[in-house]
Amino acid sequence: MSEDTRKRVHDEKSLEKLTVKELREIAAELPHERAIHDMKKEELVAFIREARGIKESAPAAKKKHPVKIRMAKPALKARIRELKALQEQARESSDKGGLVRLRRQISRLKKKSRHVAAA
Fold first, then answer.
1. Residue 73: exposed, middle, or buried by beta-carbon count in 10 A (0-12, 13-18, 19+)?
2. How many other CB atoms are found less than 10 A from the CB of residue 5?
3. At 62, is the pLDDT very low, low, confident or very high (cuts 50, 70, 90)?
4. CA 116 to chain CA centroid, nearest Å
5. Inter-residue contact 93 to 102 (CB < 8 Å)
6. Do residues 83 and 105 make contact, with C-beta atoms less than 8 angstroms apart?
7. Poorest-confidence range of 20-24, 89-93, 97-101, 102-106?
8. What's the whole-model pTM score?
9. Cα–Cα nearest to 34, from 47, 53, 21
10. Has residue 10 got a pLDDT over 70?
11. Cα separation of 119 and 115, whole Å?
């Protein structure tokens, strides 16, 4: 494989990674009817691909993040009441680790309920 062919294969794969200046240099070598200096990066990439006969590859599918289940305000308040009852039990049994965990959970749920109420 010659150096020119290797360079062309490399260019085909990474046109999006090139700068606008480099894309303009490549486009200047190709026959054109429009002013290259007025083109934006996306237009330059499309022009070069069209001139070289490169089919546009589909962009890679983005990962979908798992959807968080949103609770309604009454459900949040009910959960807070449950946790406060558990917090009282932990206080009576002097479970410091449990108290800290429960306090943080209650705090997070209160924050969520405020966000739900504001929305």
1. middle
2. 9
3. low
4. 24
5. no
6. yes
7. 20-24
8. 0.43
9. 47
10. no
11. 6
